[in-house]
Amino acid sequence: MKTTISQVHDYEGKEVTIGAWLANKRSSGKIAFLQLRDGTGFMQAVVAKNGDEDETFQLAKNMTQESSMYITGTIVEDKRSPLGFEMQVSGIELIHEAVDYPITPKDHGTEFLMDHRHLWLRSKRQHAVMKIRNEIIRSTYQFFNENGYVKIDPPILTGSSAEGTTELFHTKYFDEEAYLSQSGQLYMEAAAMAFGKVFSFGPTFRAEKSKTRRHLIEFWMIEPEMAFVNHEESLQIQEQYVSFIAQSVLSNCKIELNLLERDTTQLEKIQAPFPRISYDDAVGMLKEKGFTDIEWGEDFGAPHETAIAESFDKPVFITNYPKDIKAFYMKPDPNRSDVVLCADLIAPEGYGEIIGGSQRIDDLELMKEQYEAHGLTGPAYKWYLELRQYGSVPHSGFGLGLERTVAWLSGVDHVRETIPFPRLLNRLHP
């Protein structure tokens, strides 16, 4: 019977065959212990020597790291194993012998590992992080599908900037200027006017020359947009969504979290509702914490976000930022024109902002004023203005950065480990 490591619990006491690679091994006299991986998980296989001419034992003893094989044996319980089972081997068919595999069990530097990212992905740690990433993606689709959202795919090549920034990748679109998308939000607003509640999930690009542990050049965003939803309702949806994916990871990635030595008691706390503080209160809190230079009207950096998060054991919303430091499309607070109806969600444990969201301007005349103030002209923005001209409604949305969320939930230090092939300021390969 052919199966996978993730399914061996269904075959206790039975003989099975698994296609696998040799991740590591050790031998002791007449026993060889093979650490197998097959893409679904990791498992130990035990080969006992049976006489001097035992070809299976000799093959196991001499097999090199990352050689591939079909391995056959009986599945038995092993309570010491994270998997709970191991294989008692009866036969091995070598498929390919790997020679001089470059990533050995010894320690390697980060740059070396990044140069060999295509191979580093095979390691237990990277496997665990990618499985957690996959669970976040899976539970994201589950959450939005179960709550009546339609997935819409915005374009990656665009004729305009969603945020009004200059940190864009330019390209020629035949005879026109085009950009790699930095957000699908503007297009998702159009989709929300057609389908009510929508979400996108796709790559975005920022030409930001940053080398911090929180930044990537190419990263993935989940961007819901909702018609007839105000700012307060959007905050409730955001905390419900983040709680849902956190608890899904906690429930379905126990082996991976344990391997990464993640403190799961921190994840158990991630349950809605989340605390909220205003931007005004955040500035006051920072001054009390020793950031005496911060002034009202300045945006927060990573040290500021970390300091604020230290006061909470859940993600915290910072609401109502100054209008002048936020995007042109955010709706002003009707009670206070110098701030907008927006919020950033700051993850605990120093992982920074994972969500940015707002209620959008739905008034045509106010949006025209914003266009004039920001110099938004031409066909690249005309269609977005028309969303306020034909059946405008109150609407809100947000964007969650996948890689930062993976880093937070898995407990890894740097986002470069949270995407299969990271694009960094100095790295386009592999």
From TrEMBL:
The keyword ATP-binding applies. Residues 130-420 form the Aminoacyl-transfer RNA synthetases class-II family profile domain. Transmembrane segments: none annotated. Its EC number is 6.1.1.22. It is found in: Cytoplasm. The keyword Transcription does not apply. Keywords: Aminoacyl-tRNA synthetase, ATP-binding, Cytoplasm, Ligase, Nucleotide-binding, Protein biosynthesis. It comes from the Bacteria. Homodimer. PANTHER family: ASPARAGINE--TRNA LIGASE, MITOCHONDRIAL-RELATED, ASPARTYL/LYSYL-TRNA SYNTHETASE. Belongs to the class-II aminoacyl-tRNA synthetase family. This is Asparagine--tRNA ligase.
